[in-house]
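Bench log. Compound arrived from synthesis this morning; before running ITC I wanted a structural hypothesis for how S-adenosylmethionine sits in the protein. Inputs:
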Amino acid sequence: MSEATRTGYSGTGPGAITPDGCAVEHWLRLRPGQEPEIIASAVPAGAGILGTTLLGTTLLELGCGVGRLTRPLVERGFTVTAVDESPEMLAHVTGVRTIRSTIEGLDLGGERFDVVLLASFLVHAGDPAVRAGILRACRRHVADAGQVLIQRESADWHLRVPRESRTEHGVTRVASADPVDADTSSILVEYEYEDARWTQRFLSHRYTEESFAAALAAAGLAVDEVLTEDGTWVRARPMAGAVAYGRRHAHSHRWWTWQDRPAARAAARGAW
Ligand SMILES: C[S@@+](CC[C@H](N)C(=O)[O-])C[C@H]1O[C@@H](n2cnc3c(N)ncnc32)[C@H](O)[C@@H]1O
């Protein structure tokens, strides 16, 4: 383990473990699911909005891990900047610009992106200061007319415990969800393969729709659209931009809803 783990977070098993308890070797085994399709469907086709046509659509991936999603996003034409606090994770991310930093402490000096991606339930960080800081970092780095794509837990995520699902070569089990206060749980996840076993314990803050919207608003963001039937993928926009976007919709049909997107429908069926 290279660094101190975050309070309430830990991991066991072979190889390097990140401060939030993730095992690098485990994440190297996982293939992308529907995430790249959901992300690509959510972002209008064409060049970026920042005038950087040579770069295409710029995307800041927060908490990129070993680049499981980075590679397919690059294949879909995004110009990705990948951020993670773990050097052992980042060592596996190749072919894109990488930045080692906490998300909450990230400051790229005024650089803005067409898309900021906050996947992997990182919006549920247990520490309130970290949680607020992560959303402020999203706002700080998204263009005023850009979008923040957030993957959050489904409404029943904490209730369907224990549960397990099969990955390509192993089993993922959400073994327990123990309340530590009114809206935070300590989650234990087990990953089992024939030749290895990892565990991760982490804190997860539960949102209602109201508290989710309030957390975004405190960072200057507003929910623009729920992208998948299970409610787990959300597009947020900077508040001023969200108002303008809403007005545009007042005069036209929505561009799409989650039902229009095959990837979103598939993701809704395969929710973890
Ligand atoms: C569960 S892994 C998922 C990685 C990637 N998003 C994926 O889907 O494959 C979470 C990653 O986020 C990183 N991470 C978690 N909290 C972070 C924070 N506050 N700042 C920077 N990195 C963080 C961890 O080091 C880890 O690599």
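What the model suggests: DSSP finds eight helices and twelve strands in the chain. Residues 31-152+207-238 form a domain with the Rossmann fold fold (CATH 3.40.50.150).
ITC booked for Thursday regardless.
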